[in-house]
Amino acid sequence: MKPEVIVIGAGFAGSVIAERFAHVAGKRVLVLEKRAHVGGNMYDYIDENGVRRHEYGPHIFHTNSREVVDYLSQFTDWYPYQHRVLGHINGVVAPIPFNLTTIERSFPKEKAERLKALLINEYGMEKKVPILQLRANANPEINELAEYIYEHVFKYYTMKQWGQTPEEIDPAVTGRVPVHISYDDRYFQDTYQMMPAHGFTEIFENMLKNEKIEVRLKTDAKSCLKVDLENKQILFEGEVFQGPVIFTGAIDDLLDYPLGELPYRSLEFDIQSHPHTYQEAATVNYPTPAQQNAFTRITEYKLLMQAEQQPEATTIAVEYPLTYHHDGETGNIPYYPIAKEECRRQYQAYCELIRGIDNLHLLGRLAEYQYYNMDAIVAKALQMFNKLNETSHS
């Protein structure tokens, strides 16, 4: 098949746009995927315990976008799932994000009631307040609470996750897990919260099940595609390719690191089997100093499954953050872009190198060096397809 569109990467970004080009625009699409499977970091499968294991860490679908739900529902059925997270906080196990229930479990009753009243009076019920904003409050009791939360919930978890202190991190990152002035102990409050009935991998298989789509697994794009920076063109199998090329991987890797390696945080997982249920919630955080627990959280995968499908045995993943190195024995998968100005400048310098190659389009967390939840990248891929499709017809 001679492709009209080339997509590099078979995660959500690549699979959605490949499906749209094939199904809506009727284009012949070639998908190049370095791994041996589709689905990117969403890849999951049933393991030896009968548990649906998420190979690259836990993924929970949640969104406020009806458009995204309607689109993905073409490729999967769902079951309802409300994600709840517990944390080991100064000797007690309590809900995360830190909320009014967490206050009740963390302090004597009289103090807890006073702190709850202060927070509700200051911010109102059902409000989410970033920890850095809470620490700036002038009320001494609120400030004391903020320091407690900072020390026992945010500080060490953030240091382990990012290798930096919270003050060094972009507020948009720390703001993702705020203090929640509520008794709602769900980790997310989105309108739509569910899990795919037969796993995430099936979504990708169904998306790419189109006679106009060819998927080449275990294929590094650089083995057949070259970005010619000097002549501002793309060569595919030695010939100039003028159709759209949607790239969803790491731009520094595609260009062979001429400006150095973009920094990311990576993860390693200690996968363990146990005969019975291991913990109280699907995810339990350990916001403790690294000397006490080097890992950040433990996920018990069967607790993400439908209750009637949970087996007796269980599989857990103990999660260790570390610095990314593209050729390292460990930490060689880029998970999280570093939200620092010097990193964005380095990324923008890479974008300058490809400026003028008008048929090369960057899409996704790695290609755009930007954090996306899965619903956001589905929406972004749909938006990019609509724009490219309109342009081709104008």
In short:
The chain contains eleven helices and 22 strands. The protein is an alpha+beta fold and 394 residues long.
How would you characterize this protein structure?
Helices cover 30% and strands 23% of the residues. The chain has helices at 12-23, 66-72, 100-106, 109-123, 131-135, 140-162, 171-174, 200-207, 251-254, 341-354, 374-393; strands spanning 5-8, 29-32, 44-46, 52-54, 61-63, 78-80, 85-89, 92-96, 127-129, 179-181, 192-196, 213-216, 225-228, 233-236, 239-241, 245-247, 264-274, 283-285, 297-300, 314-323, 336-337, 360-362. A hairpin with a 2-residue loop joins β14 (233-236) and β15. The two termini are 26 Å apart.
N-to-C terminal Cα separation, in Å? 26 Å
Low-confidence stretches: none
Main β-sheet, in a few words?
7 strands, mixed
User: How many H/I helices?
Assistant: 11
Beta-strand segment tally: 22
Range of helix content: 25-40%
The third-level CATH topology of the domain at 5-38 and 208-261 and 338-393 is Rossmann fold
Helices and strands: which structural class?
A: alpha+beta
- The CATH class name of the domain at 5-38 and 208-261 and 338-393 reads Alpha Beta
Report strand %: 15-25%
| Average of per-residue pLDDT values | 95
Radius of gyration: 23 Å
The fourth-level CATH homologous superfamily of the domain at 5-38 and 208-261 and 338-393 is NAD(P)-binding Rossmann-like Domain
Judging by the overall fold, what is the CATH architecture of the domain at 5-38 and 208-261 and 338-393? 3-Layer(aba) Sandwich
Strand neighbour order, sheet with most strands? 8-7-18-19-20-17-21
Backbone shape: globular
Pfam families: GLF, NAD_binding_8
Keywords: FAD, Flavoprotein, Isomerase
Family: Belongs to the UDP-galactopyranose/dTDP-fucopyranose mutase family.
Protein name: UDP-galactopyranose mutase
